[in-house]
DNA sequence: TGCAAAGCGGACCCATGGTCCGTATTCTTG
DNA sequence: CAAGAATACGGACCATGGGTCCGCTTTGCA
């Protein structure tokens, strides 16, 4: 690549920060009580370094997110798993939502930090856009389903980080139960009523 | 009466603050750029007064909310409208969700401020608890519907303030269209499949 | 080895929620 | 109506946290 690679101290520090942040967010109840200064300190780095590497808090969160999300994204794009494009829509939709839920269960704090993240709503983020677009397109292929756009929003809303945190964290709902509930719910949305489902085409 | 009423200057100031806050939140794009100092200034009052009257930012928001929400709450509790307890569950659920949606459409900024409101997730607020509890109970009465608790959460999630704001505000989805989409969605969730409930699982 | 360029880091800035306390207003009681 | 107690007022003040600045250090190319 033409563009210079970053200096090795920069690269090292970047990694250190990512690791420290990851640990800190995982350790603390609420993302709010992990400050940028904390992250810098834990990484053994100055605040200036931190901000130069990631721009701002959102940038740091985004970087963490991308790292964690890579595998899933790959599975969705090209994989042969139920997430991949080869899966028929009515099976792929639940699989996608289950994947989102699992991701948020596995990365509760991070997802929370990213999603509520203060200033802007999650709906501005481009990763949301991507998921919504994908889901919308898949829904579109299910015959008889109207309002794919809104439906995609509504389904994704059922997996919002703070809801997941509330249920899994405070209400102590076990992982598998949540997955089952979401699956049932999604199935219900996709399985439109008996009488009028026949004539659809 | 045992407990003294508040002094009249206090009462007057309280009103002034509520009014000023209402106006300010309505005028600004994001709740974030209405500061407590702004509110105090607009009300012609000192910050001390503001904080004494409402405790903190959340308290002010809550007070505003309660005022706005009163009518709906009454309709739900005792009214004869479709919101009231007399309505059969399968009709009441859509009515309730439509009411929530309309409220958030009519009070976009306020709802946004209240819901994302920074520190704590909406799921901690007791007004959410109330709505969720009510919806859960009504859902419970619909035969064949399982997981009422989760379903209530998921349905309410479809009316979250930031989603409403995103759709109505940025995406310019007209009010009636949103209501229709939500209604369709809710109907789909409530209209579960035939006896054998599909082979899915 | 020399010397830009890139990077470092922590002192510093500033906005904002929230507190404090001396002063002003209101209520009560005689 | 007087006067003291109780309550409220308000803006200076504080703490916190994101983000910036800039003199010094490290890196890496020649």
TrEMBL record, chains A, B:
DNA-binding region: 35-54
GO function terms (MF aspect): DNA-binding transcription factor activity; transcription cis-regulatory region binding
Name of the featured protein: TetR family transcriptional regulator
Keyword DNA-binding: yes
Organism classification: Bacteria, Bacillati, Actinomycetota, Actinomycetes, Pseudonocardiales
Keyword Phosphoprotein: no
UniProt cross-references to PROSITE patterns, sorted A to Z: HTH_TETR_2
Sequence ranges assigned to domain HTH tetR-type in this UniProt record: 11-72
Species assigned in the record: Tamaricihabitans halophyticus
PANTHER family: HTH-TYPE TRANSCRIPTIONAL REGULATOR RUTR, POSSIBLE TRANSCRIPTIONAL REGULATORY PROTEIN (PROBABLY TETR-FAMILY)
Keywords, alphabetical: DNA-binding
Pfam families the UniProt entry points to: TetR_N (PF00440)
């Amino acid at each position: 690549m033409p563009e210079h690679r970053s200096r090795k101290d920069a690269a090292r520090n970047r990694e250190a920060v990512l690791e420290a942040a990851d640990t800190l967010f995982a350790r603390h109840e609420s993302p709010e009580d992990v400050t940028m200064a904390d992250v810098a300190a834990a990484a053994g780095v100055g605040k200036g370094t931190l901000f130069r590497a990631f721009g701002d808090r959102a940038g740091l969160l985004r970087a963490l997110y991308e790292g964690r999300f890579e595998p899933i994204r790959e599975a969705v794009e090209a994989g042969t798993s139920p997430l991949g494009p080869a899966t028929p829509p009515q099976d792929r939709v639940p699989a996608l939502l289950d994947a989102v839920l699992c991701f948020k269960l596995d990365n509760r704090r991070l997802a929370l930090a990213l999603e509520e993240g203060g200033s802007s709503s999650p709906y501005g983020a481009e990763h949301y856009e991507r998921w919504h677009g994908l889901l919308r397109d898949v829904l579109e292929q299910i015959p008889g389903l109207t309002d794919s756009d809104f439906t995609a929003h509504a389904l994704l809303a059922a997996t919002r980080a703070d809801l997941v945190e509330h249920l899994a964290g405070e209400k102590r709902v076990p992982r598998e139960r949540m997955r089952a509930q979401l699956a049932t719910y999604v199935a219900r949305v996709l399985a439109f009523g008996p009488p009028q489902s026949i004539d659809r085409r």
